[in-house]
Amino acid sequence: MIGEFVIGRVIKAMNSNWHPQCFRCEECNGELADAGFIKCQGRALCHTCNANVKAGVLGKHICHQCHGVIDDKPLRFRGELYHPYHFNCTTCGIELNSEAREVRSRPGYAANEMNELYCLRCHDKMGIPICGACRRPIEERVVTALGKHWHVEHFVCAKCEKPFLGHRHYEKKGLAYCEIHYHQLFGNLCFVCNQVISGDVFTALNKAWCVHHFACAFCDQKMNQKTKFFEFDLKPACKKCYDKFPQELKKRMRRMYDLNPKRIPSA
Predict the structure, then answer these.
(1) What is the rounded distance in angstroms from the CA atom of residue 27 to the CA atom of residue 41?
(2) List of residues 6+ apart from 27 with CB closer than 8 A
(3) Which of 92, 124, 132, 257 would suit a FRET pair with 200, their CA atoms being 20 to 30 Å apart?
(4) Distance CA 182, CA 53 (A)
(5) Distance from CA of residue 198 to its chain's centroid?
(6) Cα–Cα distance, 60 to 56 (Å, whole number)
């Protein structure tokens, strides 16, 4: 215990004397007597914790094998990060770099079990598709779209980021969208019900409407392509409601239409 006399083996460190079992890393609480320590900012740390602290300050990763700081791109293998040079290609034996591919060697095994590493050249010869999102090999079901291959769970809408999971997608400028967001961004969603307009589209006031949802904003009378209507505050008004407007208001509306003829609604 701290503060007791030390009888037997003594550890002299950090300007103090310690029982071997009491001299521990101030990060992970591991014993330091036999493992050695590093003084870091006035604290005694094991080599692993010191590397982690150093990496955190530098914003870098720690190699799972040698516990050193990874200065370049790490290699991810079986869920852990490594210096790539700790591994060699399973096929040709060349020292690997961060572009190495991890492949499950036998079907039916759990994830990360019996996995092997291959250099990019040997992996390409195997003909295994690479996911366009995570850049990892696709060993099960493959989705092919936008000129790339994808894991099923990684092929998602560019707007809401939800996987399509076999549902229909829409492509625009090299991106994929779900039906709702494609029509919201590029197509026709009804201004009233906010649903995709599958049939005829009524376009007015820079908006799209389901034919049966286009109605006067004041009396809710349904209108069609032949109904005369007027724009008021970016909303449609039927002729009956327009006739009830104050004369001064109608004059201001007419002056606005005269200044900007493009805003005059058509029958």
Answers:
(1) 12
(2) 43, 45, 46, 49, 52, 53
(3) 257
(4) 46
(5) 30
(6) 6
Contacts with 114 (C-beta within 8 Å, 6 or more apart), sequence order: 104, 105, 106
Walking along the chain (267 residues) 10 residues at a time, the average pLDDT comes out as 63 83 87 82 82 73 84 85 92 91 62 74 82 83 90 92 89 87 78 76 78 86 81 84 86 70 42
**Residue 164 structure tokens:** 């399509």
Domains and CATH numbers, the chain: 11-59 (2.10.110.10), 60-128 (2.10.110.10), 129-187 (2.10.110.10), 188-263 (2.10.110.10)
C-alpha 33/C-alpha 12 separation (Å) is 10
**Residue showing tokens 């591991």:** 30
Token pair recorded at residue 137: 């090999």
Residue 63 tokens read as 């190699």
- The Cα–Cα gap between 53 and 46 comes to 11
User: What's the confidence (pLDDT) of residue 264?
Assistant: 44
Inter-residue contact 158 to 176 (CB < 8 Å): yes
pTM of the model: 0.38
- The token pair at 134 is 């995570």
CA distances from 169 to 152, 179, 195, 197, 260 (A): 13, 6, 16, 16, 39
Residues 151/160, Cβ–Cβ less than 8 Å? no
End-to-end CA distance of the chain: 93
Q: How far is CA 164 from CA 137, 146, 255, in A?
A: 20, 14, 50
Say how far apart CA 262 and CA 233 lie, in whole Å: 15
| CA atoms in the 13 A half-sphere facing the CB of 111 | 6
